[in-house]
Amino acid sequence: MRFLRRMLFFASALCFEALVLHSSPIVQAQIQAQTQIQAQTSILGFTPSAAAHESEIETRFKAIPSPDEERRQHHIFTAEPHVAGSARNNELARYIADQWRNEGLEDVVIRRYDVYGSNPKFTSLEMVAPVHYRAGLREMPVPGDPDLKNKSISSAWSGMSASGEVTAPLVYAHSGNPEDYELLRKQGIDVKGKVVLVRYSNPYSYRGFKALTAEREGAAAILIYSDPAEDGFKKGKVVPNGSWGPEYHIQRGAITYDFMVPGDPLTPGWASVPGAKRIPVEEAVSIPKIMALPLSWHDAKPLLAAMDGPIAPDDWQGGLPIKYHLGGKRVRVHVKIEMDNSTQPYYVVEGRIRGAQLPDEWIVLGNHRDAWVFGGVDPSSGTASMMELTRALGKLAKQGARPRRTIVVCSWDGEEVGLTGSTEWGEQFADELRSKAVAYINVDEATSGPNFHGQAVASLAPMLVETSRTLQDPSGKTLYEAWKESTTRERREAKRPEEVTDLNVTDLNLADTRIGSGSDHTVFLNFVGMPVLGLQFDGPYGVYHSAYDDFFWMNHFGDPGYRYHTLMSQLWGVLALRLANADLLPFDFASYASNIRQFVSELSKGKGMWGQPPSAVQPGEARQLPPLDLKPVLDAIDDFEAAGKRLDESASRALASGAIDSKLATTINHGTMQVERNWLNPEGIPGRPWFKHILYGARFTYAHLELPGLTEAVEKQDWSVAKQQAEILRQALVSNTKLVNDLNSSLNGETAGNGK
Predict the structure, then answer these.
(1) Residue 415: which H helix or E strand, with range?
(2) 337 and 353 assigned to the same domain
(3) Alpha carbon distance 251, 313 (integer Å)
(4) Among 104, 136, 409, 492, which residue carries the largest CB count within 10 Å?
(5) pLDDT of residue 415
(6) What are the CA-CA distances from residue 417 to residues 256, 525, 628 (Å)?
């Protein structure tokens, strides 16, 4: 038999070679990908026999999601606008609950949260001097897309805008960041009492940060428009002929200051269940006090063309065929906004597949349901993928293939307003989650193109990379190969190369371990202390938050054929199943330690440590060292890394032995789940106590911020706070090193006792 197997192997190898030599490049890639996928014989966290069983379950699971079903579900969710709090969005909540019950999910419930929400009553914008122009504030239909004739499409509005009315001069303030107002001051332009016109994404900053900055500068209102240089005709063909934003597209969005406190502004830190205690509106730090309105470039162009004042700098010039001026005198605008900002019900749908052996250990999955209009990409591509994920999990459960741990799936509401539904749910169940939750896997936008982006806390990054090798990308390659190629290309083409820490893409840096805010993972990482993963395919996407982000766009540009939707369902589910079924949870704390060391190293080399950039120091000139010694922190990182390596080695030996005592496995797994919780500081980040994670945070722009309490103190040159934050980090490292060492001792005691 051995000889026969060997001859069969050689024969199959020759057939494979012949197929590869005489096939198209895509077919060759598909054949190679299938061979690589089938060759995987071990899985992180599994004994050999458990890995073989897991591979069989994953194969069955991956065969269930269907592009046709993905498309059908996507069409349902994009059929009508469904902003948070709307009747249609609530109808979709009931639809999801009914579908999950039919699919076999258990404990399906719709939870209500009474939150301070936001809806428009009336918005208008007029230029009253030097000429009259009334902004349309509407998106025009395009040939071939019947959904754009839907009368339910709203006009332009910004969530959480203040109500009011003002007639004032208009100032062009570029991207609306603090340095932009500093340039205006140098030009003698004061924006106090005026209306500021800013643009999206140059460089990127969250619209809420633009609004807060304008509010602090004393502006009366802020207008935020989409310049074609960022997402329009300067990028490529526009809808209906291409994926970029047409003349009338409007990027709606909320300006909530959720970088201070996300969720319901009136229940900061506790759940807004019916009857909950609420603080007065005037005390809510996340509610803006400035009027805000988004614009298409069609409505912004007449304003920009009429402006006087100094010519804007070259890097402030946009894609319109005019000279951009700073304004401040000649152009006067009349802005009137009436909002209904009041408490209203939002609904979170929750369902689960109870674990067969460890029902009180949870893998939590989530996607938000609410959209600014149709939500073709954001979030309905993710919702469609979620529905196929749950259908596949439910089908397996009905066939008796139930996961060891419980999988909890949630459809969030109000994400677009202030990360609301997930935050309220996370706050309500924070204690239970800290006791039971293994990890949270977030999918917001499943796909707007073919390029995969995978985020993970560093302890789960190796597991994400390993899993990507087991799935086939629509290109014919493995997902791993496609991911590595697109990541390499993106890093080499980065517009801001200074932000790329390593151009050489390896397994160690393939996953993005720099996690900011802006989606539903925020509460789980920054408040609850759960490891998180975030999954997304993206591409040229110029219709974000507009009415053009719809079923037509997805079928023509984003994902024709719904192949990436299907791949997302497969990836999301396989990750959930691996976490749910692992013998020992696949946390890699040595990788985590290495990542933390990189964060500290970058901080110590940054300008904040010296108050000046390295380029400001003349050759041979000594820098004045800051009064902050990070060596104790670095030593603690070394100890944590060594402990992590020892635990990895012990776990590998125990898994290879083929059997682990169930009580010991529970001890090890509950201990490793505690590591992420130990990164929480109960007092929170200085100035933002809701955000409690000492490794991960977000800037006010939503951008990632590593070591947030320490970094912000260093950047402010507040050395007393910096020393305090460094000590908090050191103590957390010491605590986690002791925990990991204790787990290693327990694991070694068991393996030694078994003679392994």
Answers:
(1) helix 415-418
(2) no
(3) 25
(4) 409
(5) 97
(6) 7, 19, 40
Say if 15 falls within a structural domain: no
In this structure, are 131 and 275 located in the same domain? yes
DSSP code string of 249-314: ----EE---TTTS-S-TTSTTS---TT-----GGG-TTS--SEEEEE-HHHHHHHHHH--SSBPPG
The token duo for 529 is: 């202390």
Q: Which two tokens mark 617?
A: 């120091």
Average pLDDT, the chain: 91
Q: Give bridge partners of residue 407 from the DSSP assignment.
A: 353, 363
Query: Can you say whether the dihedral through the CA atoms of 477, 480, 485, 486 is positive or negative?
Result: positive
Measured between alpha carbons, how far is 278 from 271 in angstroms, rounded to an integer? 10
- The reply to whether 197 falls in a domain is yes
Residue that wins the pLDDT comparison between 621 and 602: 602
* Structure tokens that stand for 129 in this block: 């001097």
Q: Is the dihedral of CA 44, 693, 405, 465 positive or negative?
A: negative
Same domain, 75 and 125: no
Q: How far is CA 214 from CA 176, 196, 225, 289, 337, in A?
A: 7, 8, 15, 10, 17
Q: Which two tokens stand for residue 706?
A: 């590593």
Beta bridge partners of 501: none
Partnered with residue 499 across adjacent β-strands are none
Q: What is the mean pLDDT of residues 567-583?
A: 98
Question: Of 538, 553, 581, which marks where a domain is finished?
Answer: 581
The answer to whether 333 and 125 have CB atoms below 8 angstroms apart is yes
- Nearest CA to 463 among 472, 450, 454? 454
Query: Do you find a cis peptide bond into 450, omega within 30 degrees of 0?
Result: no
User: Do 673 and 744 reside in the same domain of the chain?
Assistant: yes
Q: Is residue 429 part of a domain?
A: yes
Beta strands 327-353 and 164-172 are antiparallel
The conformation of residue 353, written as its DSSP 8-state character, comes to E
Q: For residues 411 and 368, is the Cβ–Cβ distance under 8 A?
A: yes
What distances in angstroms separate CA 369 from CA 14, 221, 471, 559, one per listed residue?
Answer: 50, 30, 26, 19
* Shared domain check, 149 and 90: no
Residue indicated by tokens 């209906």: 240
Which amino acid is present at 449?
A: G
H-run or E-run covering 25: helix 25-39
What digits encode the pLDDT tens for the residues 253-296? 999 999 999 999 999 999 999 999 999 999 999 999 999 999 99
- DSSP-assigned states of every residue in 626-683: -S---HHHHHHHHHHHHHHHHHHHHHHHHHHTT---HHHHHHHHHHHHHHHHTTB-TT
Other Cβ atoms closer than 10 A to 501: 11
Can you read off the two tokens belonging to residue 117?
A: 């929400």
Between vectors from CA 754 to CA 751 and to CA 756, what angle results, nearest 5°? 60
The model's pTM is 0.91
Neighbours of 5 (CB within 10 A): 9
End-to-end CA, the chain? 32
- For 30, the enclosing helix (H) or strand (E) is helix 25-39
Handedness of CA 337, 341, 345, 349 (dihedral sign): positive
Backbone angles phi, psi at 493, to 5 degrees: -100, 10
| pLDDT tens sequence across 322-372 | 999 999 999 999 999 999 999 999 999 999 999 999 999 999 999 999 999
- Token code pair at residue 382: 């993710």
The backbone region for 174, taken as left when phi is positive above 0, alpha when psi lies in -120 to 50, beta otherwise, is left
Q: Are residues 526 and 647 located together in one domain of the fold? A: no
CATH assignment at residue 729: 1.20.930.40
490 and 639 co-located in one domain = no
CB neighbours of 415 closer than 8 A, spacing ≥ 6?
84, 368, 370, 379, 421, 422, 444, 519, 520
Question: In the chain, how many domains are there?
Answer: 3
Report the CATH number that the domain containing residue 291 is assigned in CATH.
3.50.30.30
- CA–CA separation, 736 and 636 (whole Å): 10
Range of the domain at 70: 25-115+344-581
User: Which of 486, 469, 470, 415 shows the shortest CA–CA distance to 445?
Assistant: 415
